[in-house]
Amino acid sequence: MTYKGKLVLAYSGGLDTSVAIPWLKEQGYEVITFTADVGQPIDLEGTKAKAIKSGASKAYIADLREEFVEEFVWRSLKANAMYQGTYPLNSALSRPLIASHLVKVAEEEGAVAIAHGCTGKGQDQVRIEVCAKALNPDIVVEAPVRDWHFSRDEEIEYAEKHGIPIPVTKSSPYSIDENLWGRSIECGILEDPWEEAPSDAFKMTVDPWDAPDEPVTIEIGFEKGLPVSLNGKPMSGVALIEMLNQIAGKAGVGRIDMIEDRLVGFKSREVYECPGAVTLIGAHKALETLTLPKEVLKAKRELEVKYAELTYEGYWFSPLKDAIDAFIDKTQEVVSGVVKVRLFKGQAMVVGMKSPNALYREDLATYSHGDKFDHKSAVGFITVWGLPIKTWSQMHGKKSDQVSKAIGME
């Protein structure tokens, strides 16, 4: 066997990536693992020990929760990014972060390659590899799970042969990916779009019909597009999201069940639970309607669709995404204020908002005493606004008899 050099493997501690360690060693690599904490439930020290036991020469563990929120989640929130208008991109957002640290560790270690545990049908293989190549065009990327074609039974047999510890309890029928921004749930009964997602698929949210009978009202403070306080209490990004996940989750908020157009070419039934994300995106979007002018809102809404697509497709480090970020950052300079949200049995409803930069003026909008709108100006406005249509009608419009016939008077 020829020694190929060092390789850095994105390591979760699950069966696939644990088996990948000895398999990659058999290909000639010295394997170093990298595990990112992005808010998922994980025994970090246990994972590190398992990586070493499975054959890794070194195991890196990194707490990336703050970086995940500040550099990825908050940028996505300012863009109200939801793929196909529904998915808050919780899994997709963590992949460029993980890819960037894989490349960083590889460069520090003098590694010749990085690796991931994605399958040939997965979207994360695209996201990780495209992002890694954007940061280091010369890096080699290995994908053992995509290459070896093991069945699950063969994987388990391989693990036992190489002394890799595997769970002895019955595994969950679901494939789960979780971080601070939400939880993705796949496989099992969920692969049939006719079947309702069972209650046992969800962990962050209660069944909406079992949520408390009394609504909970919260106030989220924003500064320049970013949430900075909850119920008047200043909080860090990580703490605020964690708290909202708990509060909104108890109200059954944040469940998503959709047919998703996957990057790899087919439709898939996807189930998510993102209580904090759904609550924050709804609140942020509402505050923008109060603080941004019509033409800016219109342009931003169009770019939000593209932003979500770029994130979903692994183009986080693309020049187009960077350009859209610059536009969005400019719009957020005035998006400050407080949004009041009512959480009740699966719904997060904005019920009030205020801002020092509000473009809403009660003295112009009111129909009551104190109305300062110049009603006489409406006559001239209508004349100018309708002039193109009037001119066209004068030249090409219907005659009165044609109009009468069109509306059924004859």
Automatic annotation (TrEMBL):
First-listed, main subcellular location of the protein, grouped into a coarse class: cytoplasm
A GO molecular function held by the record: argininosuccinate synthase activity
Residues involved in L-aspartate binding: 119, 124
Gene Ontology cellular component annotations, sorted alphabetically: cytoplasm
Protein origin, superkingdom: Bacteria
Species assigned in the record: Thermanaerovibrio acidaminovorans (strain ATCC 49978 / DSM 6589 / Su883) (Selenomonas acidaminovorans)
Entry protein name: Argininosuccinate synthase
Enzymatic reactions: L-citrulline + L-aspartate + ATP = 2-(N(omega)-L-arginino)succinate + AMP + diphosphate + H(+)
Top EC class for this record: ligase
Lineage of the species this protein comes from: Bacteria, Thermotogati, Synergistota, Synergistia, Synergistales
Gene3D superfamilies found in the cross-reference section: Argininosuccinate synthetase, chain A, domain 2 (3.90.1260.10), HUPs (3.40.50.620), Single helix bin (1.20.5.470)
